[in-house]
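Lecture 7 notes: from sequence to structure.
We start with the chain below.
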Amino acid sequence: MKHTRIIALSLTASLAGLIAACSEPEAPAMASPSAVDTMAEQVAEQESATDPQAMAEAAVAAEIALGSAVKRLCSSVLVGGRTVDHVMANELNSPALSDADFNFDDDIVSGAMAVNGGTMTVRALYRDQIGCTLLKNASPISLRAQFDPELYPQKPDVADQPWPIGNQVALPEEVPGFDMTAVRAAVDQAFEDMEPDQNIDTRAVLVIHDGKIIAEQYAEPFTADMPQLGWSMTKTVTAALTGILAADGLLHVDAPANVPEWRNDGDERRSITMEQLLHMTSGMQYSEVYTSGSMSDVILMLYTTGDTAAFTIDKPLAHEPGSTFYYNSGTSNIIARIQRQLFTNYQDYFNFPQERLFSKLGMTSAVIEPDASGTFVGSSYMYATPRDWAKFGLLYMQDGLWNGERILPEGWVDYSLTPAPAAERGQYGVQMWLNAGAPDDPDSRPLSNLPANMYYLSGFEGQNILMFPDQDLIVMRMGVTTRGPRPVWTLAESVLAAMTATEQATD
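Predicted structure tokens for the same chain:
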């Protein structure tokens, strides 16, 4: 079984290295496949395949490999509308999965592979309207009992209305203030590799100005009607739902977070506030970055547990709450569980985003997937079409107003765009990436070629929605980029240059 252990560890290392670079522009460089393979071989050579610790590590590695594959396959096909062959060829083509068997059986997707002399099987359950959930410490019967799709809110019939209210788009030939030839060239370039053999795999690009889509392009077989995974862009949606509940008087961001496990006398975590969770300044010990010889907490959380919030809640403090900014996906899932605790049943909780946010915006494709405990994976698992994702970005550009109705509470957007005190470079607000720079040094901002008041959603594999308030501009890109620079930064610079060039020509 030594061979099985090597390939499982190799895939785990690959996943960890990629997730480590999932969101922020200052993230460490991704490990190359050759370096990952070398590391896995070294680990395999150092430990006997019959050693109990080595076998336990191999089992966890296989669980991660299968869990990530089954989850992506289930969601990409049954939520995203893709074919099995396309997912297998593009995301699940690792040699580590060459001997794995995958199966679709009605609403269950399973994967099996040999490990430690036996067979490991991982399954996911698909539920209409709320997507796929890994079956961890839960049965299909218990999860089906949580939710009845027939009781899900009716979605608005807006398909034939113009975007952003609906989904109809007529791209303009010319746009005042833009060199559209340059814009279209920039969009084309976002689908091309920026480095040799990068396999940039851009799947969608949209440019929105003055509330209208002025450029849009997809890579085959993706279309405007196919939902795509936003990964950590989901965090900002989780924050928006927090704002809605705060406006209802059900949450108070400056109060200690409602986590019963932290209420014991002497538990220093009891002072952690909701705001500190939103700011990623909880001070909790957590690994979002892969380091040699260990597995990142974010990977273990997503693929080895059925309760993503409890996984993080159990972590001890590493710093005084509020003192240190550290990007921690687990805190977003704690926020999601705090939201769930406000509802008397799972049905009402699962209906809440649709009733109070998605239906209001005409985001008819949006799906947030829960874990097996019944909590939305608010850190990572929302699918929506690129046009619907863009509507969410536009909501923030419009200060939380939509078609004359206030969706987010007054002041919530400004609050979200105020840097967390512990974010020394002004790089993070309320589950939102910023480009402000240090208070006394705006030139220290993470993206020096882009405006200081630009803010953005960001997710693993290069999901980005960039908002430029001064230009009334949104630039977004979705895809699966696993190495090299993200194309969205160059795309945004080029679109801004096309805008500036026209303005200068008319002066």
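Points to note: The radius of gyration is 22 Å. Residues 164-226+385-405+426-507 form a domain with the Beta-lactamase fold (CATH 3.40.710.10).
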